[in-house]
Design brief:
Largest sheet: 5 strands, parallel
Number of strands: 11
Structural class: alpha/beta
Number of helices: 5
Oligomer: single chain
Radius of gyration: 24 Å
Helix content: 25-40%
Shape: elongated
Strand order of the largest sheet: 2-1-3-4-5
């Protein structure tokens, strides 16, 4: 897991690094002394993924809020999720008045300096747990259903399937894929004339 610390004060970076290592020794920690330096790293195509980002607000050049806004805008351009995506942003700042604005850049946590070790430990614990959940979710093969209607077959995520019957009698056959299990054939029969599967539209 990669954790980045961006703060223009070296003593704060050292403190945050020490607190991270105290709680999680298997993390790789990257340090940045300015928002400009972090954004330069972010633009690199072959860069390592940042899972958790501790970001100061008051810095020379591009401050933390401007830096977070640029990262948010890049994620929007790449059609990446703003919530439920990485990196998890944790502001560490001496300015509590910026807290409401932090929600506009999808901050995960907001810590006010001087850093309280117990609050930091709790925030990092939650962030680590969220990162593990998101990583596991990303690597889990989604369940899918193949819907065949005549000569047309469509693949649909099983979680979005809602079978609705309208009129008449029709048979639909499909295969349900389940991670780690053998595929099994499923056939539905409706008592009415038309069946369709509703999620984003009708399949008929």
């Amino acid at each position: 897991m990669n954790i980045a610390v961006c703060d223009d004060e070296e003593n704060i970076r050292c403190l945050i690094k020490k607190l991270i290592e105290k709680q999680s020794k298997d993390c790789q920690i990257m340090e940045f002394s300015s928002g400009r330096e972090l954004l330069h790293f972010w633009r690199q195509k072959d860069r390592e993924q940042i899972d958790i980002l501790f970001l100061d607000i008051s810095m020379d050049g591009a401050d933390g809020m401007e830096t977070a806004e640029q990262i948010r805008d890049w994620k929007v351009e790449k059609n990446e999720p703003l919530w439920g995506g990485l990196p998890l942003l944790i502001f560490v700042t001496g300015y509590p008045e910026y807290m409401p604005k932090a929600f506009s850049v999808n901050a995960f946590q907001y810590l006010v300096k001087p850093i309280d070790e117990r609050e930091f430990e709790d925030a990092l614990k939650k962030a680590l747990r969220e990162c593990r959940y998101l990583e596991a979710k990303k690597n889990t093969e989604p369940r899918e259903i193949l819907i065949r209607n005549g000569n047309v077959t469509r693949k649909v995520p099983a979680i979005f399937i809602i079978l609705r019957a309208i009129t008449g009698k029709l048979w639909y056959s499909c295969k349900m894929r389940k991670s780690g299990a053998t595929e099994r054939s499923v056939r539905w029969r409706t008592n009415c004339g038309k069946a369709f599967f509703g999620f984003t539209g009708d399949i008929s």
